[in-house]
Amino acid sequence: GINAEYGKQWYQRRVREAVVSTQSTGNDLQHYYITNLIEQDGRNGHRTVYSNIPFFTKWWFTLTLVCTLGANFGVLPVNHMILDFNLIFRYFQFWRTLGCVFFMGRLGFPFLINVYFLYSYSLRLETGVYDGRPADYFFLLIFNWLVLLILGFIIPLKIIGMPLVISILYVWCQVNRDTIVQFWFGTQFKAMYLPWALAAFNVLLGGNGIMELIGIFVGHLFFFLKYKYPIDYGGASFINTPQILYKYFPHRTGGVSGFGQAPASRRPAAQDEGRHVWGGGHRLGD
Prior knowledge:
Strand content: under 5%
Order of helices and strands: HHHHHHHHHEEHHH
Helix content: 55-70%
Strand order of the largest sheet: 1-2
Largest sheet: 2 strands, antiparallel
Shape: globular
Distance between the termini: 43 Å
Structural class: mainly alpha
Radius of gyration: 20 Å
Number of helices: 12
């Protein structure tokens, strides 16, 4: 009808305005996804936006919303989403190792912030340095998840969703360390400082910043073992994606590319002779 046609025209107009805005700010990632909407003539509205979310980011984002909202509204049992190794080992309640990832605790401002960072930085990694490499990105998630489970056994931790998000954010910030990011109240600084700024901001709001620090540690552990030690120090690569993951999530060509690259070596050129040299980091928006 007339209302449906008007709504479609309004939607397309808003999308085109957003494209102009993202072009002016140089945000290539947003520009790609919004341009994608125009190419599909705005069909299916928000369902189109959701369908364009990369595979792992989509499932992580969706399950986090379902589990957290379901638990807070009494649809899902909260007690079954808490990391409790006594119940895991004695009663084989292994689902807790995943429930503690997707359950983010009580609803509120921290939950909204965590969901935003989850969507934003997981999407940037999956469509950036891991574009076309779903198995490698899945291994990153698995590695950080396993490290957090070990830490959860030692510390202990009840839920690990927030530090997992921070660990992913940390990896993106290291890959794009010189990219300028915008923080609260319009402050701007290099991406390498963002995880620490989040921890400091949490302390200012009355928190202890422990979850952020744990996420930073886990993200740094992956980044150091995967990139920094082999590339900067010429050491062995201790963590590599298992071949079985490539069987189920093979490399693909096409899609988004150029939103961040693997970090370049910082060793002197003479030490790099005979070795593979990574391409320089690529700044978002360049």
